[in-house]
Structure formats: structure tokens, C-alpha cells
Amino acid sequence: MSNILNPGVLQGNDNIPGNEYAYYLTLDHPWFMSKGAMIAYYGQASFNALRAGISANLQQMVAGTFSAPMYQQDFVVVEGQGTLIIGDRGYSINSYDLDDGNLTVRAANLLAFEPGIQLNQSIVPGFLTLIGTGKFLASSNGPVMFAEPPLRVDPDALVGWADCPSPSLHYDQNWVNSFMAAGASMVGINSGEERQYDFTGQGTVLIQSSEKVIHDHHIVRNIEQQLPNVSAGGLTALQARISAMQQQNR
User: Fold this and answer.
1) Does domain 7-141 sit in CATH 3.60.160.10?
2) Model confidence over 185-217: pLDDT tens digits?
């Protein structure tokens, strides 16, 4: 066997040698980590949920970092001495450095970030905005491409964007009106050919090299928050639509 792991070869913060699907962090300071991302660790580590009862120091750090309470249950604070190894269902993992920056990332892709970064809830459902200075880790389905606006991106391929305005939705009317698209719409199929995110202005767009989106329960939670504002008729219409889609997926 080759490339046997031990603490001596895992110094600093980087991908596991020869493995883009796992990343290691030196626990010389706390990290915010997505629940379930830890796959192994050397040394001593504690994993603290972001809730009442944590130490005063952690409470102060959480209060200064989280401006997205809907996502607070999805993260823990990792403390200790040693090396933490994280992964995400076999997806590629990359590290990014913010220097007084502003970057929005899909919530399901965000794996870990340093306390120097503030986490805010984006106005785009299912995305989080990171502001400040520090390192964060994000997963992707395949390597990430960095592109300049103006461009349009398949929503399922979008990982995030930095230093540019939030995107608007663009619909290809020719595709929507076509016979094929009309048939697809009837069975609940949406594609990037029909609907895209439209980016303008300056900045960078992060795109994964696949249209397969990572399962995103945050969208469901966002919809649930909106349900109290929906009328009885609207709830009935939603229930009918959900039932129809469930029947199609069986």
C-alpha cells in the first residue's frame, strides 16, 4: 500500500496528497464546519453545536459570525489540537481565500470556514454570502471553472459568485414555447436551456463542470418559511403540484 496517512505528512491545510475528494485542516484555531463533513481526525477535537449552552467565548464568536439563523443548525464549531480530515460524498473539494472579500456560495457546497468570515443569508434561495478575510472550503461536482460576466449559467451548474451583483433569472422564450419544452414542462422537467442565471457587471462566477446539483435541503427549508404567507388557495395549488410530481417520480 502507498500513501499511508499519518500526522507527519499532513501539515498545514491542503487536499490529501493525490486525492481531490478529501481535505485536511490543522486545528490550531477554531473552524466552522458543516455537519457530517468530518470523516476522520488525528489528535483531540470537539464538535460544538451552535446553540444555547455553549461557552461564552463560542457564543460571542457565533454572534459575530452568523447572520443566517436559518442555517445555524447546519454547522458546528470544531476546536482542538490535531488534524481534521473532511469530505463530501466523493465530490471535489477546493479551498478559497477571501481578502476583505464578498463571495456567495451554494449552501449545500459550503463545508467549512474560518471565524474571520461573516456568514449572511443571500437573497437568492439556497445560497450564503461570505464577507471578510479568511479561508473557506467548498465542494463541487467536478473541477470548478472561474468565468467573467456577462454570461448565463445553468442553475444546476452554479457554485457561486464573487464581487458581482446577484444574478437575475433569464428564460429562453423560444425554448419555453417549443413543443419539446412544453412536453417536458408537463412532467416537471426544467433544464438550463429553458432557465438560466444571468450575470452582469464585474466579478467572477464559479461554475462546476456538471449539471448535477448537490442535494439541497436548504431550498425546502426556505419554502417552508414562506408557507405562513401563502393563502389557502395557494396551499391547495401547491399540494396538487407536489402530488403530481410525486406520482411522476414513482
Assistant:
1) yes
2) 444 445 545 678 999 989 999 999 887 665 666
